[in-house]
Specification:
Length: 391
């Protein structure tokens, strides 16, 4: 969103908030604050010349909701990240400059994280204008990078329309992406997403993401995802197949011609879940399939070795075992990585997670990742202990 448009949206937020809060006929209540705190200690050790890194950071989000009047409301939220103690880590592009240490992508800073006005029709339509969090489907293409302390948000107009109980249509026009490094990237982006319930056990999602960046490579991604769930006795099955094609768009300086394929299957019983799948991002030796607006950490290993697709592509085959009991959940996932174009083995990774819902407002999470390189990058170990508090 350009500066003028954003100032207009911010003005609407303030105006709507003031008008709604003071209107005598507003029966929806008063302004509602929100508080979100996250304390994290994260450590990284890698083979090679980089020194080990440790980052102790505190993330805060403070928000304010206006009441809803005739479907109209507004929200404003600030976000900041503070370093506790020394900054013995490389916080990434434009950060603390400690390039001799491993990267932990949590720079210190603060920003206006969200500021939007919204309109919601009870049965069919919702509209948001301004700076907002956008997550489509599983966040593989459009996400908020929720693992990092400073999340990714976008400036623009987002629409969501329910055409009956079986069809949902979404569209967003994005003018700016607020990156996790307290930086931004201007673009002219059109995001289309539609989902249908075809059968009780089968749904379909079709999408098109047209991205014209000012200072990054443009692309057009079109895809479809067939997915569903079915219960057989005590076992719940979830399954899906997805395909997307990525082509040249706008003023892309190089030819873009890549595809994306994913298969996934899981079975759940009595709190246990076993899952297996394969995710393939193609590459031609010069460029790999890209997902510049995705929540990347969620996919292809928590060691973050494959945040960008290698030129020869990526074939990620994974197996996962999880268990949830009461307020405790645990997960183990194994990845086997290879090149899509040449089948050369890149490496393997084991990820472990232990979570505990401590109280209604507080949770604790321990996350571990261990990557062992064969031909890509270097051996990498990561550990993170995190406490979340929200009201």
């Amino acid at each position: 969103m350009n500066k003028r448009s954003f100032l207009v949206a911010a003005g609407l937020v303030l105006t709507t908030g003031a008008t709604t809060a003071s209107a005598p006929d507003n029966s929806a209540g008063a302004l509602t604050p929100s508080v979100d705190l996250r304390l994290r200690s994260e450590a990284v050790h890698q083979d090679g010349p980089l020194q080990s890194a440790i980052a102790n950071t505190l993330r805060y989000r403070l928000g304010l909701h206006t009441p809803t009047r005739r479907g109209l409301s507004a929200y404003v939220e600030t976000e900041g990240v503070s370093i506790i103690g020394s900054d013995d880590y490389n916080s990434g592009p434009g950060g603390n400059g400690r390039t001799g240490r491993s990267v932990i992508a949590d720079p210190s800073g603060n920003e206006l994280n969200q500021a939007f006005v919204s309109y919601t029709h009870p049965s069919s339509l919702s509209v948001r204008l301004g700076r907002q969090r956008l997550i489509y489907d599983n966040a593989r293409f459009i996400g908020n990078v929720g693992w990092r302390q400073n999340e990714q948000t976008m400036d623009g107009l987002a629409l969501k329309f329910h055409a009956g109980s079986r069809t949902t249509l979404q569209y967003a026009h994005i003018q700016n992406v607020n990156r996790i490094f307290f930086s931004d990237a201007a673009l002219n982006g059109h995001l289309f997403n539609a989902s249908w319930t075809l059968l009780p056990a089968l749904s379909a999602t079709a999408y098109g993401y047209l991205l014209d960046f000012d200072k990054a490579e443009d692309s057009q991604t079109l895809g479809v995802h067939l997915h569903g769930r079915r219960t057989s006795g005590e076992i719940t099955w979830r399954y899906g197949v997805e395909y997307a094609s990525q082509d040249t768009y706008a003023e892309a300086p190089t030819t873009v011609d890549a595809d994306y394929r994913r298969l996934h299957l899981s079975a759940s019983k009595a709190g246990w879940t076993f899952a297996a799948g394969q995710e393939v991002l193609s590459g031609n030796g010069l460029r790999g399939f890209s997902t510049p607006l995705a929540t990347l950490h969620k996919f292809n290993g928590w060691a973050d070795i494959f945040l960008s697709t290698p030129p020869d592509g990526l074939d990620d085959r994974y197996f996962q075992l999880g268990h949830a009991a009461g307020r405790v959940n645990a997960l183990a996932r194994y990845h086997l990585f290879s090149a899509e174009n040449t089948a050369q083995r890149y490496g393997e990774e084991l990820d472990l997670l232990l979570g505990w819902k401590w109280t209604r407002h507080t949770s604790v999470k321990l996350k571990l990742a261990s990557y062992r390189a064969s031909s890509w990058s270097v051996d990498t170990d990561k550990a993170a202990l995190q406490v979340d508090f929200s009201l």
